[in-house]
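Hello K.,

You asked for the raw outputs rather than the summary table, so here they are, unedited. I folded two proteins back to back in the same session to keep the settings identical. This is the first:
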Amino acid sequence: MSLSDQRIGRYKLKRLIASGGMADVYEAIMTGPYGFEKTVALKLMHKQISRDQSFISMFIDEARISAQLIYPNIVQIIDFGEVNKNLYIAMEYVNGVDLATFINALIKNKTKPDLAMSVYIVVEILDAINYTSMVRDADGNNANIVHRDITPNNILLSFDGDVKLTDFGIAKARGCITTTMVGTLKGKIRYMSPEQARGEVLNYRSDLYSIALILYELVTHKQAFTGDTDMTLLKHVQSSMIECLPTKINPFIPGALETTIMKALSAIPEDRFQSAESFKQALCQLYPVNSSTKAELSILLKQLFNNSIHQEPCAGMASKPCLKNNTTNHYNTIKKVKKWGLVLTSIGLLCISVWYLSLFKMYYKKDNRIKYETKNKPTQVVLPDKDATSQLTPAAQNEKEIPKHSAVEIQKGINIPRSAFSIIDINATPWARVYIAEGDSYKFIGDTPIKSYKIQAGVSRLLFKSRVYGIKTLEINVMPNDKKIILLRYNPQQKQFDTTIQ
């Protein structure tokens, strides 16, 4: 029997949209008397887990939580039921793609991040979280809804430019049937808050952190956390060890937007935005959201997925539409025009420079003038500019000058040749920028974690610079051909450092 002939109660299945660990999502037709029909997305629980009470409770919780949420930026629940021991949830049918598919399409088409459009998408999700944070239960108490799984796959973009949050499958709220033990992880590691990755009790501020990670990805087209293994990735998330600042990836990001993003990604929850509304207002001051941004998103979606409109809808889980090969993206056209304009301008400037140079040569030759050479002065390495310093804590900003130290102080009594080197690995929790003393200044060597850094044997001084604790210096002594692992951990409650050198 073909899929189109299968029915679940009054729902006629048309095609499979997506499949997850707990359920499949189908495009289906809800039928009624007198020929009534309505297209919906039907989430059908897997038969192999339909006898597991824990999964049944989660599925029921999702339906009960979602039924309370009636908001334009949240996928609506239409029906919930059971047919022949098959649990199902009928949801609003969204004709579009998920955010993950959208970002991948932009990267594939080499389209640069649109900052205003990125802010618009995030502001729409913040509106949804602001709404869920104020929902009250039947007794008038705050429902304390925490989504816990805000990822690009669970954010849907309709071809009309609407943005909707979906999949409350592991959400928690007052009155849930299921209980999550402390220390248990649920959700996608890469988009967790540090406290969620540590298995702690959560509130909706954890969701705000996940939204900030999505904004980071939208404006850079890179994920904030990386790791060779799941365990490494988990450790990075737990310590909020973001690889690099957004402007290091996309230099067109304004400093004010980067500051807003990094505040929302603070390792300590109290240092972040304390509400979705305050986060939204900070973004809207930089990029006011209006109907034109929604229209631009709609145009871009239709151009990227022209052959998918009305054919590849999505709801509850990610759909994977195919890109039309002959679609002309006006964003790429504009980019090509700018590129060639820049090339022609550069050629023109080069020609002018050559012409002026030839004139100068003729002038000096005619007047028999003597040209003097100046000796090249050694380049002095200094600390980052004011933008980087402005991200430090107030205590660190008050430090007018960092103490000067010699780069290498050879250990007394041991004659170590200058050519002797060692290897060090450096890590810090939370992450930090690392400098090494070199003469009368400090040289920047990278952001933690730093792997296999080659260092002169002997005594050296390292400087750690963090937005959380400001500036910390550390003196190390390494022998020739040695390898050491340096770990620096900061306890914000006790305001103390734990240093380990292995």
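The second followed immediately with the same parameters:
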Amino acid sequence: MSELVIDHPRTEEDWQAVRDICCETGAGGKPIEPKDRWPFFAEYWIGPYQKLLPQWTFVARENGKVVGYLTGCPETSGFNRRRALYHRSSLLVSALRGKWGNTEDVRRFLHPFEGARRALQFRFGLKVFDLLRRRYPAHLHINVLEGKRGGTGRRIMNACLGALDQQGVSGLHLFCGEGPVPFYRRVGFHRLARLDFGKGPVSVMVRRI
């Protein structure tokens, strides 16, 4: 019988498993392609949490193997400032030096206007982001391997919600495509806003704690 345990990454092997799952589920629950995208994609999405807030990453282990994870933080505005200073700057230098190759992700990251063009606060509007800052300051990202999703996501989510409640955090938010919306509704989120980004809709989901 399989045993599911929720805890935190403890070793570099755990963090590598988190990075692998990020890439194996990064295209709407399916693997991103091609494989040469994986190192930069994983560093972009997982690196800041490993470097700045490892204690706010939760993993689900089935018989010792990491099958899902949640990265997040209790206060997004401060995290974004620290991420820009301590992670994005070093990522920029390493990308300019060619460490990550010449994939589409790297080219987009290095484009001088890409960050402003893609910034969600400009897409959704400053009023939405002010509301998130005041009422839903925490955020998270969650991914679970295909075939392991029946109940695993809820278990990881509950662990994070319990930790946020102990810290006195008022609420949290996340951004997602249309596919995961039913799951987030089942665990207590509702949709605050929704926009079509061309490749599909993106929703702001929020939950009080």
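Residues 157 and 197 are 27 Å apart (CA to CA).

Happy to rerun anything if the numbers look odd on your end.

Regards,
P.
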